[in-house]
Amino acid sequence: MLWKEFQDKMLESFGRNFFCVDDLHFNVKKEIRVGECVEFDDCQILQYLRSLHAMEGNLCIITDWCYKKNEGPFIVDANELGQFVNTYKMMYGEAFYSTDIVIINFEKKLLWVFFHEGIYWLSEG
After folding, report:
1. CA distances from 72 to 26, 36, 48, 79, 118 (A)
2. pLDDT tens for residues 26-72?
3. How many domains does the chain have?
4. Residue 85 in contact with residue 43, Cβ under 8 Å?
5. Percent of the chain beyond pLDDT 70?
6. The domain containing residue 39 runs over which residues?
7. Which is it for strands 119-124 and 110-115: parallel, antiparallel or unpaired?
C-alpha cells in the first residue's frame, strides 16, 4: 500500500491523519504497560497485541522498515500474520519489532499499537 492510499484510508476510517505513533493514542479501549527496559522477541509482541482483541481480515502493518524504505505499509491477512512475523527478519534483515509496531484493520476500525516505551494499546475509530 502506498503512503497516500494509507493516509486516505486513515481519514476515511478514523477521521484523522497519522504522522507519528502518538497520533494513534485516541479512543483507547485497552492499554497495558509492560515497561520500557524489557527486551521482547517478535512473537511476544504479536501475542501481546493479539491479547487486546482478535485480529481478522486484511491488516495494514507498519514497521520501521516501512519508513526507512518509504515503501508504505504491508497488507497481510490475519490468518497469515504469525507466518509473516516469523519470517520477517529473514525477509527484511531486521526484527519485526525495533521501535513501534502499528496494525490496523480499516474495515473494523481497530488499531493495535506497540509503542517503544513499553506500552501497547487498542484504539477504536
Report:
1. 22, 27, 24, 21, 24
2. 999 999 999 877 788 999 999 999 999 999 999 999 999 999 999 89
3. 1
4. yes
5. 100
6. 3-124
7. antiparallel
Listed in sequence order, the DSSP H helices in the chain are 3-14, 42-52, 64-68, 81-92
Contact 84, 43 (CB under 8 A): no
What 7-12 contacts at long range (C-beta under 8 Å, 24+ apart), as own/partner pairs, is 9/60, 9/106, 12/106
For CA atoms 2, 7, 81, 116, the dihedral sign is positive
SS3 category, 69:
coil
Other residues' Cβ atoms within 10 Å of the Cβ of residue 90:
7
Q: How far apart are CA 113 and CA 45, in angstroms?
A: 10
Cell of 65: 522498515
